Amino acid sequence: MDPLKIAFFTTFYPPYHFGGDAIGIERLVRALARRGCEITVIHNVDAFKALNGPAPEAEPKTDTNIRIVKMESGAPALSTLLTHQLGRPALYERIIDKTLAEGDFDIIWHNNASLIGAPATLKKGDALKIYEAHEHWLVCPTHVLWRYGRERCDEKKCLSCILSYKRPPQLWRMAGAFEGGLKAIDLFIAKSAFSRDKHAEFGFRHAMSVIPYFLPDAPLSSAKSPRPQERPYFLFVGRLEKIKGLQDVFPAFEKFDGADLIVVGAGEYEEELKAKAKDNPRIRFTGRLAPDDIAQYYEHAEALIVPSICYETFGIIIIEAFRQGTPVIARRLGPFPEIIESAGGGLLFETPADLAAALAEIATKPARRDELSMNARRGFEKYWREDVVVDQYFGVLAEAAEARGDAKLLNKLERR
After folding, report:
1. Same domain, residue pair 398 and 371
2. pLDDT above 90 (res 246)
3. Which CATH number do you get for residue 47?
C-alpha cells in the first residue's frame, strides 16, 4: 500500500523541548508511524539552544519510518531572532525548501509555528496543510494569554504586553502577512472546545476542529508498583511556574492533615514555592522525574490536583491520571471542566473552601473515591486512548481532503 507521507513542522521536538505540547506531538508522530505513515519531522534546535534549553543526555532512538530534520546553524541566537522578527525561516529556508521538494508529501502538518518561520513557512508546499494549535499563539504573541505576566488576558493589549515580557513585537502580525499565511491552511485543529472558542473570542476567523491529546493505552495491572511513601498523599505534576497555580494549593494543606502533598516537577518558580512550603513538612518536592517514574506516583495518589490559573488548551496530566484510574481535582477554568465532566472522573473547585471540601471528600470517603477512579479509567478508554483519537484525526483529514478536491489523498486516507 502506498504510504501516507507527512511533514511535521514544529519549533520544539524531543529531546529539544520544554513541555507537554512537544511530547504530545511526538506521541502523534509515533502513532501515525505505527499506522504505516512515513513521517519527516522538521524542528528548530537553534531555538531550543537560544532559549537556554538543557543539553539532552542522548539522542532518542528513531522509529524506522520517522526521519528527523534539524533547523540548526552556528548562530542560534541570531537565527532565532531573525526568524521571530522576519516571519520567515531566515537561515533555514534552503533546508526547508529542499526537504519539501524531495519529500513528495501528502500532508504538511504545522505545530507550534512561532520559531519555524511563520507566516512564510505556512505557505510552502502544495500538500494538504494542517495547523494544530497546541497553545494560543495564533491569537497571542506570548502563547499563553497571560497579560503582563500577572493576569489572565480578557482584552487584547498585545504591544504593551509583549514589551512587558521584554520581547520585540512581531510587526508582521499587525500587517496582512499573517493572515496570508493562515489562508494557506486547509484545516485548523484545537485541542479542546474551550481553546477553539477562546481563539474565536480573540478574533481568529477560521473554523477549527477539536481533537484532544491522547495516550497509548496502559491496561491496569493487578500487580501494584511500590508506594512512593506510606502516608496517603495528593499529587501535583507539572512545570513549577506561577501560572500553574500551585501556590494556591499550599494553604489547604496547612489546615488539612489527612494526607500529604507530593510535588513532581521543576521550573523557574521552584525556589519561591519551596520557600512558601518550608514550614510544612507534609509538602514534599521530588524534582523532575522521567515519565516512567511518575507512573507509580499517579497510581497511589488519592487524586491529582490541577490548579492552573492560566488558560490552558488542554490538560495532558489529567488524562495521564485518568489512565491510571486516579481521580482529579481541577480548577474550574479553561478546558478542565469539559474534561472532568465528560468522564465524571474528578471534582472541580473555584474557591479555597471548594478545594478543602474536595480534598476531604476524596480522602475520607473511600466509596466516593472508588467511584471517581472507575469513571476516570472508563473516560480515558472512551475519549483519550490512542486508537480512538487517531481515528478522529483520519476522519477530519479525510473531510479536509474531500473539501480540497484531492481524490488521491482521500483514497489513501480511506484505506488507513
Report:
1. no
2. yes
3. 3.40.50.2000
Per DSSP, the three-state class of 97 is helix
Averaged pLDDT, 291-300: 90
Pairwise CA distance, residues 99 & 95, whole Å: 6
Task: Note down the domain range covering 333.
Answer: 233-384
Work out the number of other CB atoms within 10 angstroms of the CB of residue 247.
16
| E strand or H helix at 5 | strand 5-10
Number of other residues whose CB lies within 10 A of the CB of residue 161: 20
pTM above 0.90, yes or no: yes
Place of cell 524531495: 102
Q: Which phi and psi angles does 82 have, rounded to 5°?
A: -60, -45
pLDDT of 44-67, one tens digit each?
999 999 988 777 766 767 778 999
Contact at 8 Å (CB) between 151 and 169? no
Chain position carrying cell 513557512: 121
pLDDT single digits (tens) 342-390: 999 999 999 999 999 999 999 999 999 999 999 999 999 999 999 999 9
Q: Are residues 375 and 390 in the same domain?
A: no
Using CA atoms of 35, 60, 111, 405 in order, give the dihedral in degrees to the nearest 10: -30
For the chain, percent helix, then strand, then coil, each to nearest 5? 45, 15, 40
Identify which of 3, 120, 97 has the alpha carbon closest to the alpha carbon of residue 42.
97
Contact 222, 248 (CB under 8 A): no
